[in-house]
Amino acid sequence: MFGTRARRALGIATLGLIPLAAPVVLAGSASAHGYTQNPPSRSLHCHQGAVSDCGSIQWEPQSVEGPKGFPEAGPADGTLCAGGNARFAQLDDPSKPWPQQPMTSGQDFEFRWELTAAHATTSFRYFVTKDGWNPGAPLSRAQLEPAPFLTVDFGGRRPPFTVTHTGRLPSGKSGHHMIFAVWDIADTANAFYSCADVNFR
Ligand SMILES: [Cu+2]
């Protein structure tokens, strides 16, 4: 004979389906931005381990953000590659063994940025060092040709997360130079800065 066990159903108070007003609050400007992959930036070399003892940039190569308005404004001379951020000072250290990307002067080249946030964009601009520049000193305005050799206007549009554009490399260059890339953000006071060591042939 089976004992019967009285089971008592628990009364379940059915929750009314009242939509909770859950505000979607986006955390402020996180560490989500971008860096040049072609030509390979110093940030990328640190991130990939080609250059060691880089400090925190190796974990966040996309974070070289500084005030916009270069060259009239922007980061101070000697801190250009770090975008003026003291915590990324290694990027301005000329004694590190930065790999040099071979490229052909005067030829078309496909520039590529990897973005982790597709900010509304004013432009991408590319500067190159002057002939006879001093690779043994941190980069400064005086070492750069005054005008960018390539400007890609975006008119405030958002680029794709991988953004490429083809442009003509400066002509008449040979040997080790620096390409200083600037990503001007349309709706903030900032820009992103990226240094790439190249070797023209
Ligand atoms: Cu960002």
UniProtKB/TrEMBL annotation:
InterPro entries: Cellulose/chitin-bd_N, GlcNAc_Chitin_IntDeg, Ig_E-set. The keyword Signal applies. It holds the Pfam family LPMO_10. Keywords: Signal. Signal peptide: none annotated. Gene3D superfamilies: chitin-binding protein cbp21. This is Chitin-binding protein. It comes from Prauserella muralis. The lineage of its organism: Bacteria, Bacillati, Actinomycetota, Actinomycetes, Pseudonocardiales.
